[in-house]
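Exercise 7. Given the encoded structure of a 126-residue chain, write a plausible sequence.
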């Protein structure tokens, strides 16, 4: 299972990669493995400003449906349109082509509340 060092993580299994005042968000390799085969990703929050912890969409797998939570407050500026036709990208490449949204970060101080790769590893092993 991959846990890239250059990302930050949430306790809800989202990852975030900061790129200037924007960030890319997706779910972790661990999360997609727990969900199983992803069959549908629904994100209808493009253009909306959401608070940290708010739901920005859902991911549906064969076994279950899970909410997707904002790792930090911000505006959803882009949704990965490729997931509409190929939701399995979340399983195949969760940190690359399977990204979910891009956000404009509203409060950079919230980034300090996210967890490191090492701490995320410890959390999922506990």
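Solution.
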């Amino acid at each position: 299972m991959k846990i890239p060092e250059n990302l930050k993580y949430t306790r809800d299994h989202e990852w975030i990669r900061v790129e200037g005042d924007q960030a890319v968000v997706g779910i972790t390799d661990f999360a997609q493995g727990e969900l199983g085969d992803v069959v549908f990703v629904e994100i209808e929050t493009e253009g909306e400003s959401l608070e940290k912890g708010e739901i920005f969409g859902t991911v549906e797998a064969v076994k279950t449906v899970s909410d997707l939570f904002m790792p930090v407050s911000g505006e959803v500026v882009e949704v990965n349109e490729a997931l509409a036709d190929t939701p399995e990208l979340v399983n195949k490449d969760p940190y690359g082509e399977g990204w979910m949204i891009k956000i404009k970060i509203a409060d950079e101080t919230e980034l300090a509340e996210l967890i490191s790769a090492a701490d995320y590893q410890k959390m999922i092993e506990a």
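Remark. The mean pLDDT is 97. Students should compare their own answers with the one above.
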